[in-house]
Please model this.
Amino acid sequence: MNPLIRVIPAFLVRLFAKPYVAGDSLQKAMDVVLRLRTERGLLSTLDLLAEDIRTDEQAKLNLDTYLRMVDAVAAAGLPAAEQPTLSLKPSSYTTVPFQHGGDAKGSREAVFAIAERAKQKGVQLTLDMEGRHWTDWTLQVLKDLHAAGHTHVGCVLQTRLHRTEKDLRELPKGIRVRLVIGIYREPAEIALVDKPAMKDRLLAFAETLLRAGHYVEFATHDDGYVRRFLSDVVPRAGVGKDRYEVQMLYGVPRERFLADLRSQGVTARLYVPFALGWGMAIQYLRRRLDEYPAMVLLVTKNLFLRK
Model:
């Protein structure tokens, strides 16, 4: 990690993180997603900040928390189409992750356990995509889940990776796909380094997915690319509003734009992370700042926009 990022005081990191994290408990996160739905007409996908796990106890706590998340969503009493989905990172359930030379022991079993509970409760899941070390594993587990009848599980694909064009052609039939540029730093030989090119791929890959019968979750804060997706890609693919949605991060100030989307009948969903204590949230944001230093300027600007 960049030494400058490491020495930022925790209280300042927390100040940066607060607008982007829905609290330090499951109850606070559920309060946020319900308020987003009732007050702003926005759907949510709920994510527990729980990466870089060091102990088996932490891994078990993460699994137990996700099982409770499934139960909480099911008990919220929302119509199925308005329920929060749950996003999960496979590295949250292992102390031996691939990026550190491990074998992800425990991750597969945890993901299947969550998928089974979610199927029983009628809750939709999304397998988040992490760094390149996890890509093959995540896509194989996705296929195994669908083969076992867990068709309620979707996935994430990152347009920066050169392999993604091939990966999106090998997905299980008709699944939900969150399409993102990705924020993980990757070497140039396996990924684009030019951000506009990554965004251009968002449009191209979204059209490919729509034409193949998938449900596209188009995830970007670039208003121009969202408009191009709606005005160009969707009509060319010939699909209705039931085949796609637009996703953005909780806390990023796009209220007017999201209201405009809602007025057009477009489904909009926010990615809502929370933590079990601010320590994990601060750790999360330090990693994001290290991976994407420009985020310091973005967060600072957003803090002023909230005044």
